[in-house]
Design the sequence.
């Protein structure tokens, strides 16, 4: 625990981002280590950190859902490196804001599916299990979300 508490805490805090009191976030961290203790016999040396990170992400997301919240849209999700040309930089910032608005225009559930798949790189199967939805529903929502984003961005003048 001494080795991995800082790592697990950062994973949990990055997902929760102040969405709940610190005591609740600490409880999530404790739950991760409780799960590790329960699965200790199955943990493989060299894979503990990755396993802890995955469990921490899932437990933090579950806690958000328990509270009726969805995954936040962090600034870094749409971070585009600043080019040297100020005119180009202004255009990039405008594009970034349009993409942010397009993602925020999705329903909370669709936005969560979209972020899980494209930001957190979760598979359709993982999203299905984590959200208790059918895999075909996830695929449909991703396709509709892409179409809606394409339409939104085209209105904003971004070629997609």
Sequence:
């Amino acid at each position: 625990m001494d080795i991995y508490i800082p790592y697990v805490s950062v994973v949990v805090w990055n997902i929760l981002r102040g969405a709940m009191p610190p005591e609740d976030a600490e409880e999530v961290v404790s739950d991760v280590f409780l799960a590790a203790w329960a699965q200790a016999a199955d943990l493989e040396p060299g894979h503990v950190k990755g396993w802890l990170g995955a469990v921490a992400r899932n437990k933090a997301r579950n806690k958000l859902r328990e509270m009726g919240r969805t995954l936040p849209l962090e600034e870094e999700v749409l971070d585009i490196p600043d080019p040297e040309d100020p005119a180009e930089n202004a255009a990039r910032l405008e594009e970034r804001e349009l993409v942010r608005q397009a993602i925020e225009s999705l329903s909370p559930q669709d936005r969560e599916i979209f972020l899980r798949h494209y930001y957190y790189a979760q598979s359709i199967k993982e999203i299905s299990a984590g959200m208790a939805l059918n895999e075909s529903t996830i695929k449909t929502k991703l396709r509709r979300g892409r179409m809606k984003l394409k339409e939104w961005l085209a209105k904003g003048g971004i070629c997609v």
Remarks:
- The mean pLDDT is 78.
- The first helix runs from residue 5 to 16.
- The two ends are 47 Å apart (CA to CA).
- The chain is about 65% helix and 0% strand.
